[in-house]
Amino acid sequence: MNPFESLDGRVVVVTGGGDGIGLGIVEVLASCGAQVVVAEKNAARADAVRERLGGRDALFVETDVAEPASVAALFERVDAYHGRLDGLVNNAGITLHGPFDAFSLDDCDRLYRTNLRSMFQCAQLAAPRIARAGGGAIVNIASNHAGASVPGFEMYAATKGGIVAMSRAMATSLAPQRIRVNTLSPGFTLNAPIGAALERDPALLDAYRALHPAQRINEPADIGRIAAFLLSDAAAGIAGADLVADNGMSALLFNRTRSST
């Protein structure tokens, strides 16, 4: 039995679904037969997303998750187009970092609004809709920075740690409505900006691989398959968990350079 068969026909919202990890999640869900709603701030990505999906059913909704009115409009659009909702992947987020003594409060607020508050609002609006459909799942995308981070990423790490803590509490609040809530915390994952950096300096790839015990770096589709699992009935017994997907990077006591041979 295909564990992802249960996703066939289910309506799932994916925020930040136009690129990177979000697009990887969208592609995997669409391949499983889900009716994906791609919530994306950059409307110019719509055609590229549709092309990547190869005609599979998807609704693209221009959405700025940092703006409450835009988020509310997203779920109203879902109501009008599908009339139901079975799942939510809160993926949209930004990365801001800089010297501790120079990091601005404005950037702190941007991180909070985009990375944390938006996930609460999306879940708050999604939950009654998912409950009306008979239950489902919410997957909140955090980061391995929630457990261990690096200098200059204090507020970014705080938002990611906040996602994990919020999701655990949310799982207890929504369990009576048959809604499972889990966190997926990716580590280093290849995306367009990283790919461009590797084109400029291919030696970076070996340096990045050396940070991982398996000498392997995630592709967006790797994260997509894990998100699909957490949304599916195969994960029916999992709630309030944080699944770290970083190829063992966070398990290292210290980083060490390893030979690639």
From TrEMBL:
Pfam families: adh_short_C2. PROSITE patterns: ADH_SHORT. CDD domains: SDR_c. It comes from the Bacteria. InterPro entries: NAD(P)-bd_dom_sf (IPR036291), Sc_DH/Rdtase_CS (IPR020904), SDR_fam (IPR002347). One of its GO terms (biological process) is fatty acid elongation. GO terms for molecular function: oxidoreductase activity, acting on the CH-OH group of donors, NAD or NADP as acceptor. Belongs to the short-chain dehydrogenases/reductases (SDR) family. This is Glucose 1-dehydrogenase,3-ketoacyl-(Acyl-carrier-protein) reductase,Uncharacterized conserved protein,3-oxoacyl-[acyl-carrier-protein] reductase,short chain dehydrogenase. The lineage of its organism: Bacteria, Pseudomonadati, Pseudomonadota, Betaproteobacteria, Burkholderiales.
